[in-house]
Amino acid sequence: MRKIQVEQIISAVESLCIRSNIELPQDVRIALDKALEDEASPLGREIIKDIIKNTEIAKEEYIPICQDTGFAVFFLKLGQDVQIVGGNLNDAINEGVRRGYTNGYLRKSIVTDPFLKRVNTKDNTPAIIHTEIVPGDKLTITIAPKGGGSENMSALRMLKPADGVEGIKNFVIETVDKAGSNPCPPIVVGVGVGGTIDMTTLIAKKALLRPLGEHHPQPEVAALEKELLEEINKLGIGPQGFGGTTTALAVNIETFPAHIASMPVAINIQCHVARHMEVEI
């Protein structure tokens, strides 16, 4: 049994919180560079240039790419041969967030009592923590800060099995079209199909972690990803909603077995600042 001290986890999470809000993932930068080459609108190209310049300034000056430094969302893979010592795992994650958002001078956006007093917690806690037990003696921590503007444009629909692929396509296109400029396009569209109401929303969010340009291993699903991306980019919303041929950088679909009576579909939209970072302990 391998032991991991909570202080090691706290330190790793603090660093992840700061770095993920400052350093754009390489796959997203590559997707933006490609979008700049492909964008047909002159204004759209100028906006993408500004987006890229903004990410470069953030890295050079070590400041957040976006003022909305997001809800701290974590995906943990905890090896079954790991023992956490010196404290509680979830408490360690939250303490790392507390230190990261305070010491990194990141905006604190989380409020208590969502429909009552809405008082700011002042340290961006609590975090959202999803933990999966896996073989091995390692702990993998992935952070995906999620801004309010893009999260607000996400959606869930309990489709009937008879709605089929066309039902999924119509729902995705309708949701992106309705979102318009609100999620700061060009966006990344995560789609979850199957499972229960909680599982489909979870896999839609996890779909955002897949490297942009990497498609689902099942050919039929990969083909649907490509078709949806093409159709979304025909909507004309364009970079930051000013029109153009680049409304989305990618559509990533994840699936899970479903009940014979249902076909839930969730859409989790991410802005062009598609932040995610991972560390293994």
Quick summary of this structure?
The chain is α/β, with parallel strands linked by helices and 281 residues long.
Rounded mean pLDDT is 97
Q: How far from one another are the termini?
A: 14 Å
Helix count from the secondary structure assignment = 8
Estimate the strand proportion. 15-25%
> Helical proportion?
25-40%
Verbal overview:
The chain has eight helices and ten strands. Helix 2 runs antiparallel to helix 3. The longest helix has 20 residues. With 281 residues, the protein is of the alpha/beta class. The two termini are 14 Å apart. The model has no long low-confidence stretch (mean pLDDT 97). It folds into two domains: 100 residues, no CATH class; 128 residues. The strands form three sheets. A four-stranded mixed sheet has the order 4-2-5-10, with helices on one face. It has a four-stranded mixed sheet with strand order 6-9-7-8. The radius of gyration is 19 Å and the shape is globular. The chain is 38% helix and 22% strand.
